[in-house]
Every structure is written in C-alpha cells, then in structure tokens.
Amino acid sequence: MASRLLQISKTRPQALSLRVSSPVVSKVVYRRFNSTNAPPRTLPSFSMAGKVCLVTGGARGLGNEFCRAFVQSGCTSLAVIDLKQSEATNAAEELSSFAASNGLNDVKFIGIECDVSSEQSVQKAYAEVMETYGRVDSVVASAGIVENYSAFDYPVDRIKRLYDINVHGAFFTAREAARNMIPQGGGSIVLVASMSANIINIPQPQTPYNASKAAVKHMAASLAVEWAKKGVRVNSLSPGYMLTKLTKTILQNDQELKKTWESLTPMGRMGEPDDLSGAIVFLASDASKFMTGSEIRVDGGYCII
Ligand SMILES: NC(=O)c1ccc[n+]([C@@H]2O[C@H](COP(=O)([O-])OP(=O)(O)OC[C@H]3O[C@@H](n4cnc5c(N)ncnc54)[C@H](O)[C@@H]3O)[C@@H](O)[C@H]2O)c1
Predict the structure, then answer these.
(1) Which regions of the chain are under pLDDT 70?
(2) How many structural domains compose the chain?
(3) Looking at the domain assignment, is residue 211 inside a domain?
(4) What is the position in ligand 1's atom list of the atom closest to the CA of 115?
(5) Is residue 14 part of a domain?
(6) Which UniProt keywords are listed (predicted)?
(7) What is the set of active-site residues?
C-alpha cells in the first residue's frame, strides 16, 4: 500500500516571546492566532498539541474539515484515511499546504488508502500509522454513505453495503483504535453519527441510513462502557444537515428539498462543515476528559422541534 509522509519544511516563522505557563500545549496555537504578546484566550485543554490524530473519510466533506480543525488546534501528526490512495494523498498534501499557510510547521501528514468496511484493511491502515507515528491519540470515524430508496425498493446488496460501511466500518475503526490506545495509556474516539439517530428525516426515505446512525450512537455508548476504565473515551457527534458532497449529490437536482430542510431547521439554514469544528476539538481533546458515552448534536436545533 503506497502512502506518503509529508513534513512541512518551510522556514519557521519568527518565534514570538511567550509568557505562557504551559509552553508545549500553547506554543503552536499561540503562534498561529496571536500577533501580540498576550496569552492565548482559550483553555489549554482545548489544544491538540502533542496529539497524533487519525480521521477516516478524511479526504472530503466533514472528515476533511475535522482534519483542518485538528491542524488549527496544533496537532502533531495526522493520518488521512480514505477509500482511494490518490484522494488520501491529495488531501494530505492540501492539508500540509493549509498548515504552512497558517504558519504551522513541523506537522506531519500521511494519506492512507483503506476501506473501513474491511477489518483487514482497517488493521493494515492502523499498522501503517503506528509504524510511522508510534502512537495514536484521537480518532474520528467519519467515513459513511447515505442513499435514498423507499424500504420496498431498496436493493438488498446496497443495504448490506451501507451497514458494512456505516456500522461495521465504525466498529472496526473504534476497535483498532482502542487496541492501540490502551497499551499507550488511552485516547479519544469520536464516532460520527447523525441527527438521524434521533429523528426521522422527511421527506426523503432512508430507513437503513437512519437505523445505521442509531446503531453508531449506541455503539459509542456501549464501547465507552467497555473501555471507560482503560483510559479510552468514546463519544458520538451527530450533525444536522450539512453542506458536503454527500448532501450536494442529493440536492443537485432538487432545490425544493434544500428549502424544505432549511424550513425544518429552527436556525433556517444548512450547516457549513466548519460549524462542527468546535465540537470535534472539544470531543477529541482533553477539554472533554470526563466525558464518555455521550452524544453531541450540532443540528441548528432540528431535533428540538
Ligand atoms: N453531510 C451531512 O449532512 C451529514 C449529516 C449527518 C451525518 N453525516 C455523517 O458524516 C459523515 C461524513 O459525511 P460527509 O457529508 O462528509 O460525506 P462525504 O461523502 O462528503 O465524505 C465521506 C468520505 O468518506 C469516504 N468513504 C466512503 N466510504 C468509505 C469506505 N468504505 N472506506 C473509507 N472511506 C470511505 C468517502 O470517500 C469520502 O471521502 C458520514 O458518516 C455521514 O453519515 C453527514
């Protein structure tokens, strides 16, 4: 399996004089966001400094936005996992340019091909991450698909494929994460579920998807209990309607559907992928260190009406 490790080698920006008490945690974030000598106006526990991150479905959409949020929050190393090697590599290269343009040096990136529905493929990807970085601290299972068929019309092979990716893929990703995290002392796993784990979307029919996301949400809670005393936290993040390739494909021939979704969302709009950045960094970082088995919904209020 071919992959590429990228390390930004641009000239380090002139160091600012730091007056922060937690230098390792705060330096990177400080350099990026502050042009004065004031300490960063954020809790140090929200930083991803020193952390090795892995994101499945990281080449595109929400997964890619999670990668950006981790880079902006100072992660040390990042593994972008996706179905095709070319897309994983391209995303890793784009993220390294993004880091460089933000003055964040010394961040390492690797793009790895992996089909999360295959346990063997997931194990191979983690083996590569461990060989390259030696540890993994924060994992996000974002790879997933959606399809709209009525229950009577849904082809059996497609139903099975959807569960293989959305449910078994999340399980293999989490299990392999825990296998590697427990010997190193712990870590944080975030399974991307959906508001569809809690409500039934209308008008489009998507019963297997909704059921798959309810399974992912409950999987996160179940695994959280299994691994709570071993230092591994597992939470789920449930977005509402977000503008990504996944939803754009559904909406491309149906602008009325977008209006319907917006009218059903109290905030009156679809989410931009970066609307999830705060929640993902919270869950993946030490800011949420006493939180496990929980779900965070970020849906513009959809589920409350
Ligand atoms: N976009 C939304 O409105 C929305 C809302 C709620 C939940 N979600 C969930 O968020 C996650 C990401 O969705 P998105 O909108 O970014 O989708 P997307 O289609 O834009 O991106 C999904 C990524 O997953 C990858 N992928 C698909 N199958 C894979 C496999 N078998 N192995 C490895 N990678 C695979 C794709 O190549 C792609 O890069 C999904 O789990 C989705 O169900 C999305």
Answers:
(1) 1-40
(2) 1
(3) yes
(4) 32
(5) no
(6) NADP, Oxidoreductase
(7) 194, 209, 213
Interval 113-168: pLDDT, tens? 999 999 999 999 999 999 999 999 999 999 999 999 999 999 999 999 999 999 99
243 part of a folded domain = yes
**Sheet of 52-56, strand order:** 4-7, 108-113, 77-82, 52-56, 138-141, 187-192, 232-239, 295-298
Shortest-distance Cα residue to atom 2 of ligand 1? 242
Which pLDDT score, from 0 to 100, does residue 20 have? 30
HSE of 92, CA atoms in CB hemisphere, 13 A: 29
Cα dihedral 243, 60, 204, 277 sign: negative
Task: Calculate how far, in angstroms, residue 213's C-alpha sits from the geometric centre of ligand 1.
Answer: 12
> What distance in angstroms lies between residue 169's CA and the mean position of ligand 1's atoms?
12
The residue segments making up the domain with residue 122 are 4-8+21-304
| Residue 142 Cβ contacting ligand 1 at under 6 Å | yes
